[in-house]
C-alpha cells in the first residue's frame, strides 16, 4: 500500500518530494512553505486524509554533527562532557560554541539545512493509509508556517504546543498562546540552544511576599553520556540456534 501511495504522491507533487523509509514503508511528503496549506487541503480532499493524528516541531540545530565520534576519555571524564559548549551545555547568557552549517555536513547529506520544521501526521480511514508531511520554515530567526486548524480543527492545541516549545509561529491560528509553560516563561525549552538548566529560576521572596523569577545561579550545566550498546555474544548464540532450528524443520519437511 505504501508503494502505491508514494507513486500517487509522486505523480501529483513530484518524485523529489516523496520519501519512503524502508523497511517500514513510512511515507513522507516534503512540502515548500508557500505550498504547505494548499498541499494539505489537496491531501484531505483528493487523497482522503480526513483524520488529523499529530503535529510537532523539529529543531535541526546540530543535526549531522559527529561530536560523539570524536569523543575521548581522560582523567576528567569524557571530552564531550568537559570541553566546548555543545547543545544544552552552556549557562545563562551563553550560546553554543559550534553550530553545524551546510559546509560541515558530508556531501551525501542532502537534507535541507534550514533549522526549524513542522511534521504533520495524517490518517485516511477509508484507505487505511498514514502519511507524514514535513515543512521547513524559511526563516530561522522567525520561523513561520501556515496553520492547518482550518482543515483539521484538532490541530489547534498541537500547534500551540509547537509554538510554546519551539517558537514556531502558525499564521492564521485562532488563539496562538503558550499551552505548557508559564505565561512569564522566557524562551522555548525544546530548542536545542536552550540551556538544559533553563534561563530563569523561581523562588518565593519573603520580603515581596510573591514568587520572583531570576537568572539561574544555583545550578551548573550538566551533560549526560550516551548509552553504549556493545556486542552481546549470548544474543548472537541465541539467533544462531534459532536459525538452526528453522533450518532443521525445513529439512524434515
Secondary-structure map with pairings?
Elements: H1 2-13, E1 18-21, E2 26-31, H2 36-45, E3 51-59, E4 73-74, E5 77-78, H3 79-82, E6 116-124, E7 129-136, E8 144-146, H4 156-166, E9 169-171, E10 200-205, E11 210-215, H5 233-252
Parallel strand pairs: 2-7, 8-9
Antiparallel strand pairs: 1-2, 3-6, 4-5, 6-7, 10-11
Question: What value does the average pLDDT take?
Answer: 81
Low-confidence stretches: 100-111
3D shape: extended
The level-1 CATH class of the domain at 2-60 and 114-191: Alpha Beta
Structure at a glance:
This protein has 253 residues and is an alpha+beta fold. It has helices at residues 2-13, 36-45, 79-82, 156-166, 233-252; strands at residues 18-21, 26-31, 51-59, 73-74, 77-78, 116-124, 129-136, 144-146, 169-171, 200-205, 210-215.
Written overview of the protein:
With 253 residues, the chain is of the alpha+beta class. The chain has a domain at 2-60 and 114-191: Beta Polymerase, domain 2 (2-Layer Sandwich). It has helices at 2-13, 36-45, 79-82, 156-166, 233-252, and strands spanning 18-21, 26-31, 51-59, 73-74, 77-78, 116-124, 129-136, 144-146, 169-171, 200-205, 210-215. β1 and β2 (26-31) form a beta hairpin. The protein starts with a helix and ends with a helix. The relative contact order is 0.14.
Amino acid at each position: 500500500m505504501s508503494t502505491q501511495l508514494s507513486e500517487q504522491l509522486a505523480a501529483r507533487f513530484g518524485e523529489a518530494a516523496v520519501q519512503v523509509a524502508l523497511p517500514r514503508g513510512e511515507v513522507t511528503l516534503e512540502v515548500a512553505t508557500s505550498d504547505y496549506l494548499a498541499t494539505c487541503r489537496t491531501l484531505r480532499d483528493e487523497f482522503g486524509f480526513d483524520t488529523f493524528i499529530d503535529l510537532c516541531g523539529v529543531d535541526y540545530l546540530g543535526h549531522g554533527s559527529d561530536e560523539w565520534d570524536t569523543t575521548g576519555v581522560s582523567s576528567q571524564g569524557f571530552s564531550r562532557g568537559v570541553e566546548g559548549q555543545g547543545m544544552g551545555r552552556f549557562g545563562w547568557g551563553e550560546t553554543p560554541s559550534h553550530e553545524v552549517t551546510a559546509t560541515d555536513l558530508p556531501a551525501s547529506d542532502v537534507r535541507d539545512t534550514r533549522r526549524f520544521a513542522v511534521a504533520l501526521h495524517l490518517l485516511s480511514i477509508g484507505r487505511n493509509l498514514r502519511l507524514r508531511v514535513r515543512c521547513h520554515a524559511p526563516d530561522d530567526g522567525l520561523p513561520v508556517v501556515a496553520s492547518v486548524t482550518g482543515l483539521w480543527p484538532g490541530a489547534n492545541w498541537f500547534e500551540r504546543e509547537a509554538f510554546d516549545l519551539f517558537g514556531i509561529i502558525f499564521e492564521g491560528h485562532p488563539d496562538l498562546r503558550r499551552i505548557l509553560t508559564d505565561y512569564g516563561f522566557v524562551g522555548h525549552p525544546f530548542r536545542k540552544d536552550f540551556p538544559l538548566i533553563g534561563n530563569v529560576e523561581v523562588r518565593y521572596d519573603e520580603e515581596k511576599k510573591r514568587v520572583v523569577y531570576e537568572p539561574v545561579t544555583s545550578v551548573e550545566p550538566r551533560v549526560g553520556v550516551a548509552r553504549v550498546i556493545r556486542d552481546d555474544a549470548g544474543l548472537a548464540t541465541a539467533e544462531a540456534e534459532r536459525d538452526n532450528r528453522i533450518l532443521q524443520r525445513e529439512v524434515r519437511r
